[in-house]
Design goal:
This protein is of the alpha+beta class. It has three domains: 320 residues, Thrombin, subunit H, CATH 2.40.10; 94 residues, PDZ domain (Pdz3 Domain, Roll); 91 residues, Roll (Pdz3 Domain). Helix content is 19%, strand content 30%. The chain is built from twelve helices and 28 strands. The two termini are 41 Å apart. The N terminus is likely disordered.
Length: 534
């Protein structure tokens, strides 16, 4: 059973997650064997389907010539170890959160990712990551500062700007960076962006620091990469691997677009750079999936293009200003596309428009499908989130929208993304009312009018009971959820739900969409009508 290890630091004293990555040394050794074997490839028994072109590729490099040494020699001086101190009182507050179970002190996005991979709360294979020793270790009395985290970083300019992870320096009272020659400098935090986990530091007093460039072009899957960092506080460690995948969503936030790599990364590598063979930074290491806190070949890096955008914003004002529409969106799955009678399962489906937001002012509606922004097609809701976030507040964008089978253009003037965007949901006590038990067999649900259930609001019908083997349970509907409308028709009673489903079936609809509100927000759920005659 794997465990996700956040990587803020190699220090045993850190409670903040640091992110790690891992590598398959056996596989990497195999790659080297093949790459350096030269003409010896003929010694392998290859399938008949291997073409001469492939054989030529594997044998074109003379034996003994491949090495990362030139790249490492070039880039290593720009990579630094980042040591973070926090006030003892802050450390006490963090350690007080530690209990016998749970994931206290772990950021919500990291906890969601851990749970997504099946990690529990109480020991065993589901134990949370080791976030450091308990309060009261030797030499750390009240009122004293101490090192509570170690990570990595790198200079991006000769005048001392350093990039690292937000989670490495979050809450720091003092930050020091150490170069490969052993010299240490105090750095100040210019700004941080928790949504992308990027932080910008500045070391003053010199203008001739060694530095490296952020790559302008994205790497390809299969490209070689080299990582340099500070695993376990050792400093100056180099590992190599390949780009395993791009565009990974690990559930850490709405702008996830990680590069997956297999070069070995461990605690303390967080914030460190991963280089392409041209010596440019293709990503900033931020997370790993690991059963033990060490590398197993699944690591994630923030793409250099994202880092560049955030760094420029932090340099300008210390914060990142992002555009904001004010809608809840979700991907267009095959089931949703079928229910909406769309040709392709692409775009972003608007599940709810928040009142008083740019989306409401522009006339966007629940059920709209956004297919393009300023003429650029979008594949899914995550791409829409990233594209809108790249726009500045007060910018007017043109959204291409499918509504009731017709394509329209909706201009939206963006506003500043609020610091905390949250959606209120129904109480978990919803459904504990005498008006329960009104079953809808087609869905495997028992429903009650929302008006008659405490905490459920005035609109829709509350789910009071779910058949675990029914179609609604398969779609993630749970007790306490509120069904707002079915097939675009608002509902306020179980009878209206049944009647709307019956009408859709009579019209030979293959599926319908239900708009459902829960404590996680509002979303559309596609329900097939063909398989659920009731």
């Amino acid at each position: 059973m794997s465990r996700f290890s956040p990587v803020t630091s190699s220090s045993a004293n850190s409670r903040k997650p640091s992110l790690l990555r891992e590598s398959r040394n056996g596989l990497l050794a195999g790659v080297f064997t093949l790459a350096l074997a030269g003409g010896a490839v003929g010694a392998f028994v290859l399938p008949q389907t291997v073409t001469p072109a492939l054989a030529q590729i594997t044998t074109s490099q003379p034996a003994g010539t491949f090495s990362f040494a030139d790249i490492v020699e070039k880039v290593s001086p720009a990579v630094v170890s980042v040591k973070v101190k926090k006030n003892t009182s802050d450390e006490v507050a963090m350690n007080d959160d530690e209990g016998e179970g749970g994931m206290q002190g772990v950021p919500p996005q990291i906890e969601r990712f851990m749970r997504r991979f099946g990690f529990g709360e109480n020991g065993g294979p589901g134990a949370r990551p080791d976030m450091g020793p308990r309060r009261g270790g030797p030499g750390h009395g009240p009122g004293r500062d101490r090192v509570v985290g170690q990570g990595s970083g790198f200079f991006i300019s000769a005048d001392g700007y350093v990039v690292t992870n937000n989670h490495v320096v979050d809450g720091a009272s003092e930050v020091d960076v150490t170069l490969t020659d052993g010299k240490s400098y105090t750095a100040k935090v210019i700004g941080t962006d928790p949504r992308t986990d990027v932080a910008l530091l500045k070391v003053d007093g010199k203008d001739n620091f060694p530095w490296v460039k952020l790559a302008a072009n994205a790497p390809r899957v299969g490209d070689w990469v080299v990582a340099v960092g500070n695993p376990f506080g050792l400093g100056g460690t180099v590992t190599a691997g390949i780009v395993s995948a791009r565009g990974r969503d690990i559930g850490s936030g709405p702008y996830d677009d990680f590069i997956q790599i297999d070069a070995p990364i461990n605690r303390g590598n967080s914030g460190g750079p991963t280089f392409g063979l041209d010596g440019e930074v293709i990503g900033v290491n931020t997370a790993i999936v690991s059963p033990s806190g060490g590398n197993v070949g699944i690591a994630f890096a923030i793409p250099s293009e994202t880092v560049s955008e955030v760094v420029e914003a932090l340099k300008s004002g210390g914060t990142v200003a992002r555009g904001y529409v004010g809608v809840q969106i979700q991907p267009v799955s095959d089931e949703v596309a079928e229910a909406l009678e769309l040709k392709d399962a692409q775009g972003a489906l608007i599940a709810q428009v928040q009142p008083g937001t740019p989306g409401e002012k522009a006339g966007l509606k629940a059920g709209d499908v956004v297919t393009a922004i300023d003429g650029k097609a979008i594949k899914d809701s995550r791409e829409m989130s990233r594209e809108i976030a790249r726009k500045k507040p007060d910018t007017t964008v043109k959204l291409s929208v499918l509504r009731d089978g017709k394509s329209i253009t909706v201009p939206v003037t963006l506003e500043q993304l609020p610091t905390d965007v949250a959606s209120a949901g129904p109480s978990k006590d919803a459904g504990k009312d005498e008006e329960t038990g009104r079953a809808v067999p087609r869905l495997g649900l028992s429903l009650a009018p929302a008006k008659g259930v405490a905490g459920a609001g005035d609109q829709g019908v509350v789910v009071t009971e779910v058949d675990p083997n029914g179609p609604a349970a398969e779609r993630g509907i749970a007790s306490g959820d509120v069904i707002l409308d079915v097939a675009g028709t608002p509902v306020s009673s179980p009878a209206e739900v049944r009647d709307t489903l019956a009408k859709a079936a009579k019209d030979n609809r293959k599926a319908v969409l239900m708009r459902v509100k829960s404590d996680k927000g509002t979303r559309f759920v596609a329900i097939s009508l063909n398989d659920n005659k009731g």
